[in-house]
Amino acid sequence: MDDDDADYMQGSEDEDYGFAYSDDDSDEGGSADVENMYYTAKSKKEDNPEQALKEFRAIVQQEDEKGDWGFKALKQSTKLLFLTLHRPADAIKTYTELLTYTKSAVTRNYAEKTINSILDYVGGGKSGPVEVEILERFYEATKAALTEAKNDRLSAKTNLKLAKLWLDRKEYGRLQKILTELYRATIGENADDQAQKGTQLLEIYALEIQMHNERKNYKKLKEIYNASNSVRSAIPHPRIMGVIKECGGKMWMGERQWNRASEDFFDSFKNYDEAGSPQRIQVLKYLVLANMLTGSEVNPFDSQETKPYKNDPQIVAMTDLVDAYQRREVHAAEKILRENKATIMDDTFIKQYIGELLRSLRTQYLIDLIKPYTRLELSFLAKQLNVEHEEVEELLIGLILEGKVEGRIDQVSMRLELESKHSLQKKRYSALEKWTAALDSIHTTVLGKNHSGQRGDFGFGMPSESLAGEGRW
After folding, report:
1. What's the pLDDT band for 450 if we cut at 50, 70, 90?
2. Mutual orientation of helices 108-123 and 88-99 as an angle, nearest 10°?
3. Residue 76 and which of 155, 413, 416, 435 are 20 to 30 A apart at CA?
4. 264 burial class (0-12, 13-18, 19+ CB within 10 angstroms)?
5. Is the pLDDT of residue 23 over 80?
6. What is the mean pLDDT of residues 226-244?
7. Do residues 365 and 326 touch, judged by C-beta distance below 8 A?
């Protein structure tokens, strides 16, 4: 028994049948003959596909009523025509005929598995590139049959499968059209539908978020991301939440909100890990990157969820990078990036933030480097950092403006002059004196107002006329 027959057997698990018994053995004999014809034809698929195709057609033609063997013969014919003989137009004809059997000839589960199987290999490119027109014809035939059968659940699944296909092919115009149909069918006019179909709605959001992420439309991405977070009554597959959180993390990275990006990447990693998706490794790299950009001293591999992947061959380079970052060893970090191009720098998303990471690391290294000195040549600092003179000057200006370095740059002699400890203390004392003088001034002003209010009264700041008035009582 091959996979096709196994699907058939599994497809009948949830179905309820009423068996009719008869003393007439002619039906059993006829069924045995058809079964023999089917397996004979099937045995010729590899060596003589054209002959196998003719014999499968003979099975369909000899059936008085549509039944199991005719359905299976059409399934094999479609597969032969599409994958082996590369005749997609003929495959569409046999597939359209097969869809007419799904109403009553076979169980609903088996029909759904067969449809999904065919659409998977049609869109999967197993037989080479498939023209868009061919794909559309397969899906249009499927949608028409499902609409006629009023199978809304499978119709929605088919549209989601087609949407994923257009996303993979970057056919964004066609994808947007399918997404509009899906939203209309899922949300409808009743707001309660959104809660009832929350799981399906999250799947649609996941597809649209990926589209906006690829097109770098971050404004729309954020809108859909926020909408996905508002869905409460849903039990989504962890892979779906992994996708949403991954795109959310990338969105926050674009806005330089490293902490929020780190949180979303961690959630994405956990969901991908639960789903067993290989994407968890890539997202773990993003998590490590975001964590370093936050400037956190916490090692991301200290958590229970990430620790098992610390020694993964694709992660080891990121682990070493974290160690170098936490030790402020900028030269070691640069060496790791040079020697691990395939696992780090070949990722376009990581690559666009490596410059920012190195800048952060060089800044910390520079702060530690200049601490013991009062005066340094910019050329010396450039040599220590292994960067251009202009970049050192830019880093120092930023540190001075942020108040992390007390000093000034002498652009004539190209030297950094740091303020001495005595000078800093003098500045502090001067600031304290100004603060004290300001307090004295406020104190004097308050006393002055108080004295002016007490003129002619009994010391309670109330006018004498008022007290005189009270005396009359």
Report:
1. low
2. 160
3. 155
4. buried
5. no
6. 89
7. no
What value does the mean pLDDT take over residues 66-80?
A: 91
Token pair in block for residue 414:
């190209």
Best CA proximity match to 261, nearest among 296, 297, 234:
296
| Pick from 27-36, 115-124, 145-154, 402-411: least confident | 27-36
C-alpha distances out from residue 368 to 3, 216, 329, 405, Å: 65, 38, 11, 11
Tokens of 223: 């809108």
Q: How far is CA 141 from CA 96, 133, 179, 317, in A?
A: 6, 12, 19, 49
What gap in Å lies between CA 186 and CA 192, rounded to an integer?
A: 10
DSSP string spanning 327-387?
TT-HHHHHHHHHHTIIIIITSHHHHHHHHHHHHHHHHHHHHHHHTT-SEEEHHHHHHHHTS
pLDDT score at 283: 95
Three-class secondary structure of residue 134 per DSSP: helix
Tokens 């989601």 label which residue?
160
d(CA 323, CA 244): 30
The 10s digit of each residue's pLDDT in 107-128 is: 888 888 999 999 988 887 666 6
Residue 360: closest CA among 260, 285, 293: 293
β-strands 375-377, 407-410 pairing: unpaired
Number of residues that make up the chain: 473
- Paired residues of 377 in beta bridges: 415
Query: Cα(282)–Cα(344) distance, rounded to whole angstroms?
Result: 10
Residue 369 has pLDDT above 70, yes or no: yes
Q: Could you tell me the pLDDT band of residue 18, with boundaries at 50, 70 and 90?
A: very low
Inter-residue contact 301 to 322 (CB < 8 Å) = yes
Q: What is the mean pLDDT of residues 142-154?
A: 85
In whole angstroms, what is the distance from residue 207 CA to residue 195 CA? 19
For the chain, the average pLDDT equals 82
Contact 228, 271 (CB under 8 A): no
